[in-house]
Amino acid sequence: MHPDTLALEVVTPDRRVLSVRVRSVVLPGELGLFGVLPGHHPFLAGLAAGPMRVRHAGGEDTFAVGGGFAEVLSDRVSVLVSSCERAADIDVERARGALDRAEKALRARGPAAEAGREEARGDRQRALARLRVAGRRASG
Question: Looking at the predicted structure, is the pLDDT value of residue 44 above 90?
Answer without folding.
Answer: yes
